C-alpha cells in the first residue's frame, strides 16, 4: 500500500464530510406491545407500518423524521424485554443520536451512563438527547423546555426529544443548531432565566416573538478542564470532532491494520495522509484555516511504552520518535474546529 492510495481515501472523506454530517442516524427506544419485532430501521417515514406502533410512538417517529436524518432506528421494549437488553443491541449498531421519549428519570440516567461509557471507554461517537438529565458531559444533550404545543397536542420535555435528536442528526457540520427554528411549534413554557439555563448546560427553546427556536446548540458539559476546553460545550464542535475521529479510525483500521509493517516510514505515510486530510478540511471550512492543524508522532506516548520494556532514560526525542514500538502507533493531533457565527456586538455611534 502506497501513500497516494491513502491520500485519495482521506481526500474523499474530507470532500464529503459536510454532506455526510447532515445525514446522521437517530436511534429511538419505545415501549410498545403492538408487534413482536424488537428492532426496526427506516430510511423515511413512509416505510413505517402504523399498526406496528401505538399512536404516541408514531408521533415520536414523526418528530424524528422532521429533522431529515438519513435513518431512524427503533428499538422496542416489550413485555419480555428490558432496557439493558436494548442497550446491548444498540452498542453494536451504528447511530449518532439516541433518545427515549417516555424514559423515567432513572432510565434517563442509565442511558446517559451508557453513552458516557461508550464514549469514554470504547471511543464510540454516540450521543444522547434526554430530558432534564444534567450529566456534565459532551455526549449528553440535556433538553429542558416543557409544555411544547404543536397544534392540538402538547408534548412533554421527554416526548419532544425525538424532534431535537432528528434536528441534530440532520444538521450539517458547517452550521450550528443555535437559532434553528421549529415552525410547527405554536407555544412553549418559556424559561425565566434562559442565559443561566444555557450556562448550566441546558438546551432550551425560546420564543423570539415570531418563531420558536433553539436558543443555543449546547450539550450538558459545564466543567472545563485542561482536556476539555469551552469548545467542548458546543454540539457543533463535538459533532465535527466525532466525525473526524471516526474517519481517521476507520481508515486506519481498513487500510493499515494487518496490511503493512509498523515501520517508522509507514507511520510517516499515515501522518502525511492525516495532515493532508486536515488541510482539506480547512479548505472546506470544517477546520480553522488560520491554525496549524497537525498530527504527529506522540513522543511521550512512545517514551512511556518503551520505558515498560527497556531503559530509555538517556534517549533523546529523535531516538524515541523513530524507535520500534511493536504493534503500537502513538500519534497526537492539535486542531481547531471552525465554529459558526452566533454572536454579534455592533456599536453604532451618532455624531
Describe the structure.
This protein is α/β, with parallel strands linked by helices. The chain has a domain at 23-170 and 179-214: Rossmann fold. The chain has helices at residues 3-21, 55-66, 83-90, 105-120, 161-169, 194-199, 235-255, 264-283, 299-307, 317-321; strands at residues 25-31, 39-42, 71-77, 97-99, 127-131, 140-143, 146-150, 153-155, 187-189, 202-203, 205-207, 212-214, 294-297, 331-334. The strands form four sheets. A seven-stranded mixed sheet has the order 2-3-1-4-5-6-10, sandwiched between helices. A three-stranded antiparallel sheet has the order 8-7-9, with no helix packed on it. Strands 11-12 form a two-stranded antiparallel ribbon. Strand 11 (205-207) and strand 12 form a beta hairpin. Helix 1 (3-21) runs antiparallel to helix 7, helix 1 (3-21) runs parallel beside helix 8 and helix 2 (55-66) packs parallel to helix 5.
